[in-house]
Every structure is written in structure tokens, then in C-alpha cells.
Amino acid sequence: YHHPPKSRGVYIILGLFFGLLGIHNFYAGYHGRGAAQIILSLTIYGAIVTAFWTLIELLTVVKDASGVRMT
To answer: How far apart are CA 37 and CA 34, in angstroms?
Structure first.
């Protein structure tokens, strides 16, 4: 079964607005990363770490969890 590629623009917008909750990672299929970001964000220092983590992901992630390049 062929899944259409995810939108990189949607991924970035979700990361900008909901990055601390990891919603952008759930969208891309990275469920473990998303869950880790939610849990880490529950602490003050964890939220700071997650903010930097999200910024790095928004600049570097170009493929979804299936290995399909986002368009």
C-alpha cells in the first residue's frame, strides 16, 4: 500500500506551534520521539531541551518515519 508523502511545510508549521508537544513528530510517524518530547516537556529544564531539539529537527528532518522524503 502506497502512502502519499507528508508535507514538509505542515511538519514545520506543526513544529513551530506545537513543537514542545512533539506533534510534528507524530505527524511524520516518529511516535517514540513525539512521546519523548511530551514527557520531557513536563519539566522546566526538559522544556528548554525540547525547544532546542525541535529547532534542530525542523532544520534537518527531510524524511518521514517510513523513509519517504517529505515534499
So the answer is: 5
